[in-house]
Amino acid sequence: MRWATAKRLFLLAVLVAVTLAAMRCTVPERIGLTSSESKFRDMLAPVQNGLTWLGRQGRYIISLPVSMVGAAARCQELEHEVERLESEKIQFNEYLIENQRLSALLDYKKVMAGNYNSLIASVIGRDPGNWFGTITLNRGSSEGIRENMSVLTPEGLVGRVIAVSASTCEVLLITDPRSGVGSLVQDTRTPGIVEGVAGAAGIARMIHLPNNALVETGQAVVTSGQGSLFPKGIPVGRINNVQNEPSGLFLSAEISPFANLNNLEEVIIVTFVQPETPTPSAGG
Amino acid sequence: MRFVLYPLLFGVIIILQSTVLENVAIAGIKPDLVMLIVILNSFFLGTRAGAFLGFTGGIVEDLFLGSYIGLNALAKMTAGYLAGAAGGRLYRENIPIATIVIFFTSLAGLMVNYLLLLYLDITIAPLHALLRVALPTAAYTALLAPFVFWRIFRYNQNRSREL
Question: Could you say which of A130, A163, A177 has the minimum Cβ distance to residue B123?
Fold first, then answer.
């Protein structure tokens, strides 16, 4: 037997012996570790930990481009889904707001049904400039709309119809400089005229208030109904400030309309006003 | 072709201005797109063409509104003329300069509009007219200049090459 062959056989024997010893030492019923095993494992733990972490990072780096392909597609799908849901949410909100608005109009219509006949109309256009304040509504002469009919929202007066076609009508807002509304201060019954300032300004002025009138900021102004195209008692706006007119004989007051005239979507056109029944005098 | 194109363009702009532009109004103030197109084109074309263009844009607007025919035509004609005069004296290929020109010429046009309203017995307090309408409208209109400046500049350059 040659020396090399003998050496190989010896190593094989050692390997078999060690393996057999290892088999013996690792029998399952043995509980607990020897102190040397325990120390060895404790020493090995950080290394194992590090290597495991490195392995995971390696796998992550290698598999990243592959997973990115799928992730991009998934991300895109989710983005579409989010967009669709956002759009639906906006649509539902729109329905909700429209519902609330129409309910308010319907309630108001019911409240005023005793005094007025009315028609609900949508705003379909506005004056393209900033000087005048007019809106176009989707109701016209074919639905009984005529010039000078009053236009309102549940919040207050909007204006009056100034021009009518078969299917549309144009409304002069109370903020238009051409508008004039016979009004009075609700608390003190002080009469005056509410005229527009400029279409885009969004405010009006109550003029010709007597110098000694008790007019204060915050008071409400309503239509007077006297000699006016507008029915009596419709809220017009609230007084912002009071100042002397240049002539010194009268006061004027700046008014913020109750109706949000810069953001109108639906309005009520008063088509008929019940004539007021005269109240019997106290003496009969 | 231009004689048909411009009125058509102004017509489309006015329809947009009376419907869609309501949504970009700030405190009730909308930009005046007709004024913007008139002034920017006039800035490149000169006084004569500017006045003509302003008048065309204004008259289309007046016809659309159906009342006070000539009110916007005169106001925008003034603005167009002034923008044309400014274009002859200033460096034209510069957005900030164009923005300033739009602000001042549209302000001038709006003040002409105001004087014509007084002429028509439509009284608006001068301070309200200036602070609540003219200045905000001129500023808002001028701020839109960067969005259309190069398009209008290139259009006018191509047209002058064709001629």
Answer: A177
